């Protein structure tokens, strides 16, 4: 199996037309636009597919957005990753706390009250572990 080439789709927002202009880096003339990012993505993949006479599923396309927009989006992506990891850690600590409290002889209802959970959730956590 050969490694396929990755093409870079470069996006620019046209505020006057409220559209996204997109072109493939290194392929002069392979360009299109869309009223939304999703539409522009779809159209540039279709255009590249026709340009190269290749099925769209066989193409590797990397999207490159204007730096200012990418910086904002990357910041949110990083923050969401931190939040997801914190959520997973909190979930694990909750499971451990439920086990510890019930092992200490507390009822499921009392463990739930101490942890701010429903007794049904405590039951679910114990059954799943």
Would you mind describing this structure in some detail?
Helix content is 55%, strand content 19%. It is α+β, with helices and mostly antiparallel strands. It folds into two domains: 6-65, TTHA1013-like (TTHA1013/TTHA0281-like, 2-Layer Sandwich); 71-128, no CATH class. The protein has a four-stranded mixed sheet with strand order 3-2-1-4, with helices on one face. Helix 2 packs antiparallel against helix 3 (108-115) and helix 3 packs across helix 4 (119-128). It is elongated and about 75 Å long. The model has no long low-confidence stretch (mean pLDDT 94).
Strand order of the largest sheet: 3-2-1-4
Number of helices: 4
CATH architecture of the largest domain: 2-Layer Sandwich
CATH homologous superfamily of the largest domain, by name?
A: TTHA1013-like
Strand content: 15-25%
State the distance separating the first and last CA atoms.
43 Å
The overall number of domains is: 2
Q: What Rg do the Cα atoms give?
A: 25 Å
Key words describing this protein structure:
single chain, 129 residues, alpha+beta, TTHA1013/TTHA0281-like, 2 domains, four-stranded mixed β-sheet, 4 helices, 55% helix
Quick recap:
By secondary structure, the chain is α+β, with helices and mostly antiparallel strands. Helix content is 55%, strand content 19%. It has helices at residues 37-52, 67-103, 108-115, 119-128, and strands at residues 6-14, 19-24, 31-34, 60-64.
Write the layout of secondary structure elements.
Elements: E1 6-14, E2 19-24, E3 31-34, H1 37-52, E4 60-64, H2 67-103, H3 108-115, H4 119-128
Parallel strand pairs: 1-4
Antiparallel strand pairs: 1-2, 2-3
InterPro entries: TTHA1013/TTHA0281-like
């Amino acid at each position: 199996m050969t490694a396929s080439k990755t093409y870079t789709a470069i996006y620019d927002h046209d505020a006057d037309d409220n559209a996204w202009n997109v072109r493939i880096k290194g392929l002069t003339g392979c360009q299109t636009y869309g009223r939304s990012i999703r539409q522009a993505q779809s159209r540039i993949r279709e255009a590249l597919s026709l340009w190269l006479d290749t099925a769209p599923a066989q193409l590797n396309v990397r999207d490159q957005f204007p730096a200012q927009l990418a910086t904002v989006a990357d910041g949110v992506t990083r923050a969401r990753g931190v939040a997801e990891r914190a959520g997973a850690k909190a979930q694990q600590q909750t499971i451990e706390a439920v086990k510890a409290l019930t092992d200490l002889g507390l009822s499921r209802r009392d463990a739930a009250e101490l942890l701010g959970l429903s007794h049904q959730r405590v039951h679910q956590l114990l059954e799943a572990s």
